[in-house]
From TrEMBL:
UniProt keywords, alphabetically: Metal-binding, Oxidoreductase, Zinc
Protein name per Swiss-Prot or TrEMBL: alcohol dehydrogenase (NADP(+))
Segments forming domain Enoyl reductase (ER): 11-341
One Pfam family matching this protein: ADH_zinc_N
Superkingdom: Bacteria
Top EC group: oxidoreductase
Cofactor(s) needed by this chain: Zn(2+)
InterPro entries, sorted: ADH-like_C, ADH-like_N, ADH_Zn_CS, CAD-like, ER, GroES-like_sf, NAD(P)-bd_dom_sf
EC id: 1.1.1.2
Enzymatic reactions: a primary alcohol + NADP(+) = an aldehyde + NADPH + H(+)
One GO MF term attached to the UniProt entry: oxidoreductase activity
Family: Belongs to the zinc-containing alcohol dehydrogenase family.
Gene3D superfamilies (UniProt xref): Medium-chain alcohol dehydrogenases, catalytic domain, NAD(P)-binding Rossmann-like Domain
Length: 347
């Protein structure tokens, strides 16, 4: 076993604290990664604070991991020592069900193994990327292209694939009008990706305070949803709406913005249930859907796409001692647009 430095939540109400954790020995198909950067995702906060149900403490969050391979198992063929690699939201799956066999491991029938807070194959609870090292089976490690700096690549392992997958699945591209709801950690990456795909991109945000940023990131239009005239002006406009907000929304109002046959997809995950009037769907043959990250194959595709288009997250790099401050700033929407931990500061 390898003992490594980490930052952990000890309860739903206490700040995260420095600690040490044990990583399993490198098995034949395992890769040991020297973590360089770990992104902070809103999901980390929800999980650490028990918003999505009871968690197992101590809990080391972090599923936006970028680093360098420092050791490989005897049977590893996909990676070599010195490779630039990443790990996202899952570290294993059954590999046998219909979804896994189709490259959709995130929808594993038996449930994928989350990067933290999940039961690992050896019966222990997985611990995430707020640490100096991690051991992961080679099939769940992706290659980070040289064109992407590791710090800006880290958030792509969650925010990137979470937005790329639905944009890809629902056909964002030339001739398509795409709206992104919210310009935060997910939304700012969604704008960049949708723009790079060739879509006409509109940001729908509560106010116009981030308008300059939105247009700089690739949006063609920017509207404030706190102005009721926005919904009248844009009625029936969009082929696809991607809702990145993790808060309760007026779904009927947003669905009214879809063209006939359009789809609204939720990737934000509010803690409370949402409701809608079915007539918002019936009148216009509209669809309301959800999307969960992406499979390993699509995650690699996303990283290659982002490298090709020189597209990374907008980040603020912080030392580990600022993690708790960063959590509060995320909750206050005081970040543009993603915090990334420099894991060298873990000691």
């Amino acid at each position: 076993m390898l003992t490594v430095n980490a930052y952990a939540a000890t309860s739903a109400t206490e700040p995260l604290v420095p600690t040490t954790i044990e990583r399993r020995d490198v098995g034949p198909h395992d890769v040991l990664i020297d973590i360089k950067f770990a992104g902070i995702c809103h999901s980390d906060i929800h999980t650490a604070r028990g918003d999505w149900g009871p968690a197992s403490y101590p809990l080391v969050p972090g599923h936006e991991i970028a680093g360098i391979v420092s050791e490989i198992g005897s049977a590893v063929t996909k990676h070599a020592v010195g490779d630039r690699v990443g790990v996202g939201c899952m570290v294993n799956s059954c590999r046998e069900c219909v979804n896994c066999l189709q490259g959709e491991e995130q929808f594993c029938v038996a449930g994928n193994t989350g990067t933290y807070g999940a039961m690992d194959r050896d019966g222990t609870v997985t611990q995430g990327g707020y640490s100096t090292h991690v051991v992961v089976t080679e099939d769940f490690v992706v290659r980070i292209p040289d064109a992407l700096a590791l710090d800006v690549a880290a958030p792509l392992l969650c925010a990137g694939i979470t937005t790329y997958s639905p944009l890809n699945h629902w056909g964002a591209g030339p001739g398509k009008k795409v709206a992104i709801v919210g310009l935060g950690g997910l939304g700012h990456v969604a704008v960049k990706i949708a723009h790079a795909m060739g879509a006409e991109v509109t940001v729908l945000s509560q106010s116009l305070k981030k308008q300059e940023d939105g247009l700089r990131l690739g949006a063609d239009h920017y509207y404030a949803t706190n102005d009721p005239s926005t919904f009248d002006q844009l009625a029936g406009s969009f082929d696809l709406i991607l809702n990145t907000v993790s808060a309760k929304s007026d779904l009927d109002a947003y669905l009214s913005l879809l063209a006939v046959g359009g789809a609204m997809v939720n990737v934000g995950a509010p803690a409370e249930p949402l409701s809608l009037n079915v007539f918002s769907l019936i009148f216009g043959r509209r669809s309301y859907a959800g999307s969960l990250i992406g499979g390993i194959r699509e995650t690699q595709e996303m990283l290659d796409f982002c490298a090709e288009h020189e597209l990374g997250a907008e980040i603020e790099v912080i030392p580990a001692e600022k993690i708790n401050d960063a959590y509060e700033r995320v909750l206050a929407s005081d970040v543009r647009y993603r915090f990334v931990i420099d894991t060298a500061t873990l000691g």
